[in-house]
TrEMBL record:
Protein name, UniProt field: Mitochondrial adapter protein MCP1 transmembrane domain-containing protein
InterPro entries: MCP1
Keyword Membrane: yes
Keywords per UniProt: Membrane, Transmembrane, Transmembrane helix
Amino acid sequence: MSQSKPSLLATTKRTLLPVLSRLQLLPTPFLSTFLLIHLSAPLVANVGGSEAASQVMLLGREYYQTSFGEPWLVFGPLAVHVAAGVLRRALLLTPTHHEASEDLERETRKPTTLIWSGLKRLSLLQITAYPPLIFLPIHTLVNRFYPMTPGPPIDSLGPGELDYEFVKVGFQGWSWGVRSWLVYGTLVGCTIIHASEGWGFLIRRIWGSRVEPMGKAAVVTTVTGTSRRRRRFIAGLCAVSVLCGLAAITSERLMVLGTLSERYESVYRLSGWYR
């Protein structure tokens, strides 16, 4: 008996999924470097306060906030990573005719467990990928594009004027900083854990993993010698350290002239999130 010819969707998935997977992984070194530089400033604030954090941030901008660095080292890689990931997930969630028939059969047999089984298949890498997509546009517009508004009262804030005093204004206003904490907390926590999980996946994909006995259990260890539990603990510790640095910054008194403070507040008001 001749086999049925695969559908166009099945052929498309088989062709595009490997390509999208490679495109999704390709920008990770650039994004990881940017993340390391960008988050080093609030991390330094744990020992040096907002003054040290501002100095580190201004030094870091020499790497990524240039005419070449932003499009090719930050925004370009981010766009490729996000677009490839979203398209790949959309293809995976679009069932072919054969897959749809199997899902219908499973739903008929076990309707109460179908949704739960789908949720259990989500990995920590996937769970932490999508919340930042909600808050990243807010953060980018407020901290990068709205300050460039040429007209009054903002009058094109320069990079030297945008230090952590600008961040303090967002945290010390608008419902006691709850909105800023939602933005920064989600971005810091999810991106650090997502990056850690992504590098763990990349290492396993390139070099594989080995299973080492540990008492009665077995621990899957990558070639770097770091177990999954240890890697997640380190990622969580890094996220907490960065957030503690932000807390140290926002607990300081605002040290900015009145006219500049008004320009800062005008930037925040351009965003619907802070109105």
